[in-house]
Amino acid sequence: MNEPAHVISKLEKEVEIVLNTGEKLSGIFYAKQYERVSDLLNDARTFLPFKDTNDVMRIIAKETIFQVIPREHNEPQSEQKKYIYPNRL
To answer: Which of 19, 28, 39, 48 has its CA 20 to 30 A from that of 10?
Structure first.
């Protein structure tokens, strides 16, 4: 079944984020097909939708993000890429 033209399908990107307060959150960012987590962090939006592991939807201000660790299911944790938000360095 085809989706209407105004619907944009999103992929779930499982991540752990560390806020600049030190709080750690695990959950999901939503990305367009072929969009990386780093693309989400560097786009023009000020806020990102985030669903935590308790299925609570949050709107996270990018300026509060210190670190993002994508959870690639096929990579051991030690080999996963870490993104540190540049405004926090």
So the answer is: 19
